[in-house]
Amino acid sequence: MSVWGFPRFRQVVPGWVLLCILVGLTSLGPVKARAAEFNNPNLVATLIHNTVMALNHANLSGNYTVLRDLGSPQFRTATTSARLASIFQAHRKSKLDMSAVVLFRPQLKHPAQLTNSGHLRIVGFYPTKPLQINFDLTYQIVNGKWRIFRISVSPTKPAVVAKIPAGTPAKKKSKKRRKVSTKTIPRRKPKKTTTN
User: Fold this and answer.
1) Which of 84, 115, 137, 193 is 20 to 30 Å apart from 55, CA to CA?
2) What pLDDT is stored for residue 154 in this prediction?
3) What domains does the chain contain, in order, with CATH numbers?
4) Could you give the CA distance from residue 11 to residue 2 in angstroms, rounded to a whole number?
5) Cis ω for the linkage preceding 130 (within 30 of 0)
6) Cα Rg, the chain, nearest whole Å
7) Dist CA 70 CA 81 (whole Å)
8) Are 125 and 134 contacting, i.e. CB atoms less than 8 angstroms apart?
């Protein structure tokens, strides 16, 4: 008897294709099991905090080994500690210290998303001043843990909102006054009506 009792099915679909489909479906099992996590804002915030702080420590110390070790196997294969140091060299040169992010809740541009490939993508920013910390983070689940798959963190100036500084007198609007006549207008007397 052939697969699932369909004699022609085996002739149309080779066994190796079925094996690939089954392996693909079972490999997404851990991702789906952990999918509820990215709907929990506290867990998402913790994941973001941990990643940004690991990058901050790497920038401050110049040692990117731990940041690299927190990555997925593909991340570790694609990047070396020296490459990470080169990528984030501008952060180090500007002496960027992102420690203040722990005092803020990350603002997401849209809810955390599970991609078709099973990666978790989180895009947003920390509303810190004078620089806002933007992030675009992608994670892959490895042995039941979300690991860094892609990381992009960049400081930018926050959007400028025009405010009048305290102590600055507000400009008065010039009002054109209408001249009011000082003459009194006589009242008309009502007409008397007669009734018969």
Assistant:
1) 115
2) 92
3) 29-156 (3.10.450.630)
4) 9
5) yes
6) 33
7) 12
8) yes
